[in-house]
């Protein structure tokens, strides 16, 4: 007598059929096709977003350094040469014999990628005092733009030293 388990099986319990594999691959291809433009745009905006955040971080660090060391700190943004940097200035409360030669040179520049443009053109200097307030020559807002997608981020420094990044 034959068991019901001994009947001929039309399909093997191990593995997938070729049709099932094609269906799964087709679904994956459709999902990738739908998601790819969003991923591509996110990647293109990454340079501008990263540049804006790094510049804001340097500003926050300069403000923090000014408060903790009781020295003035300056951040220079040079849009012409695609770079920005930070340096300590002088202590106005202690240094009465101040000369320009006593200010350390700005040697550690950070450059930003060619896919990013910044305005205003030229140089912008932002100086933080030991009480955390900000003084600036030029604009108090730097606009960082992705050249391909025209996504714009703004980094703004208020007179009280507050730094904000907005899209």
Short description:
The protein is built from 1 helix and 9 strands; from the N terminus they run H-E-E-E-E-E-E-E-E-E.
Uncertain regions spanning at least 5 consecutive residues = 93-102
Compute the separation of the termini in Å. 78 Å
The proportion of residues in beta strands is: 25-35%
User: What is the radius of gyration computed over CA atoms, rounded to a whole number of angstroms?
Assistant: 29 Å
Order of helices and strands: HEEEEEEEEE
Overall average residue pLDDT: 81
Counted beta strands? 9
The side-by-side strand order for the widest beta sheet comes to 3-2-1-5-6
Helix content: 25-40%
Total helical segments: 1
- Taken from the alpha-carbon principal axes, the silhouette is elongated
| SSE class | alpha+beta
Largest sheet: 5 strands, antiparallel
Task: Note down, in words, how this protein is organized.
By secondary structure, the chain is an alpha+beta fold. It has 1 helix and 9 strands. Strand 1 and strand 2 form a beta hairpin.
List keywords for this structure.
167 residues, alpha+beta, 5-stranded antiparallel β-sheet, 1 helix, 9 strands
List the helices and strands and how they pair.
Blueprint: H1 18-69, E1 73-78, E2 83-88, E3 109-111, E4 116-119, E5 123-128, E6 134-137, E7 141-146, E8 152-157, E9 163-166
Antiparallel strand pairs: 1-2, 1-5, 2-3, 4-7, 5-6, 7-8, 8-9
